[in-house]
Design a protein that fits this description.
CATH architecture of the largest domain: 3-Layer(aba) Sandwich
Shape: globular
Largest sheet: 7 strands, mixed
Order of helices and strands: HEHHEHEHEHEHEHEEHEEHHEEHEEHEH
Distance between the termini: 39 Å
CATH topology of the largest domain: Aspartate Aminotransferase, domain 2
CATH class of the largest domain: Alpha Beta
Strand content: 15-25%
Length: 398
């Protein structure tokens, strides 16, 4: 099992207990070195030069795309579109696809516990097209009732967009079943995989969504890079939303023709170093025993939930049977920001606030929550340190 020694941040801050991997993961030496080495000894632009540095960079860039194709088992490397992150990926689908096919009176179906990145773009599409945004309710435990979900599908439903895993509740939603239902009804489906990519095996052939979006920085990779998987059936229906260099085939005064996918969706000089860093992150993930990682994270979640339930006035938000490595909670009479500040004084890093998911807060009747979330570098000692620090919070507030 992976050790903290693989992550330089813990050498710089040896007392750090980092419990905010749902927001962003720390970076292993393998990723940092890949980016540093590229900038220091291999840097050149891609697709534009015949000199060796450019050719080598282009080769590495293309190899990264193929590595990510393999990691998510996409049918082809052309299905892998590089973006700046999940938010960019969802916007690409919203304005490169939905805006061209959603008409007045149509419906877009999402859940009531989505991240803002999977709400706001659809609100914008609905407003511009005169369409309606419908919300699938979740139960008190943070689960989706498939029968209720199915009942909300109508002939006007033109797109379904939902998270694979809730960033607040930690719930793992039944995306395979939902994707199958969407196909039966001829409705495209987008899955926000930001919280799932580092915790669940992702297989595009088995899941077969129309779109699957994720960010590199939640996968132990760099910020500023993400992926929008686009299925073969959707690639030709998509329109680019950014225009300029590198996404063109020919440019004349009269008109422009675009390059084939995926380059037509990647205008401008690409984030080459970030792509190389993402490739290194994928290599890092594939070096791990994924089943062992998942087993350890499940154990840590069960441990922290069991201990939190024994503390008076603690409320855990969401209690899904299928859940991932994030746990949100509140303590009566103590604001989550105060919890976070006191824990920080004990070198415990957690997330507090609405987690870019204000509708989820409204659904559960809270202004904010505190959230702990785990990565491959966490262990039981981290949980015990968190619980000791939480006792300090309770003592401060009596």
């Amino acid at each position: 099992m992976n050790k903290k020694s693989d992550f330089p941040i813990f050498e710089s801050y040896p007392d750090l207990v980092y419990l905010d991997s749902a927001a962003t993961t720390q970076k292993p030496t393998h990723v940092i070195d890949a980016i540093s080495n590229y900038y220091s000894s291999e840097y050149g632009t891609v697709h534009r030069g015949v000199y060796e540095l450019s050719v080598a960079s282009t080769r590495r860039y293309n190899a990264a795309r193929m590595a990510i194709q393999s990691f998510i088992n996409a049918p082809s490397s052309r299905n892998v579109v590089f973006t700046t992150g999940t938010t960019h990926s969802i916007n690409l689908v919203a304005f490169g696809y939905a805006c061209h096919y959603v008409k007045e009176g149509d419906e877009i179906l999402i859940t009531e516990v989505e991240h803002h990145a999977n709400i706001v773009p659809w609100q914008q599409v609905a407003q511009r097209k005169g369409a309606h945004l419908k919300f699938v309710p979740v139960t008190d435990s943070g689960e989706i009732d498939i029968d209720v979900f199915s009942s909300l599908i109508t002939k006007k439903t033109k797109l379904i967009a939902m998270a694979h895993i809730s960033n607040v509740l930690g719930s793992i939603f039944p995306v395979h079943e939902i994707t199958a239902i969407a196909k039966e009804n001829g409705i495209p489906v987008l899955i926000d995989g930001a919280q799932a990519i580092a915790h669940e095996p992702i297989d595009m052939v088995t899941l077969d969504p129309d779109f699957y979006c994720f960010s590199g920085h939640k996968l132990y990779g760099p910020t500023g890079i993400g992926v929008c998987y686009i299925s073969d059936r959707m690639l030709d229906k998509m329109q680019p939303i950014l225009f300029g260099g590198d996404m063109i085939e020919t440019v004349k005064k009269e008109q422009t023709t675009f390059a084939p996918a995926p380059l037509r969706f990647e205008a401008g000089t690409p984030p080459i170093a970030q792509v190389i860093g993402l490739h290194a992150a994928v290599d890092f993930m594939q070096s791990l025993d994924f089943n062992a990682v998942k087993e350890k994270e499940t154990h840590l979640v069960e441990l922290v939930i069991g201990e939190l339930r024994s503390i008076k006035n603690v409320r855990i938000i969401g209690n899904a049977k299928q859940r991932s490595s994030a746990v949100s909670f509140t303590i009566d009479g103590i604001h989550p920001h105060d919890i976070g500040s006191i824990l920080d004084s004990e070198n415990i890093a957690i997330r507090v606030g609405h987690h870019c998911s204000q509708p989820t807060m409204i659904r559960y009747g809270v202004p904010a929550t505190a959230r702990v979330s785990f990565g491959v570098y966490n262990n039981e000692d981290d949980v015990h340190a968190f619980l000791r620090a939480l006792q300090a919070v309770l003592e401060v507030f009596g």
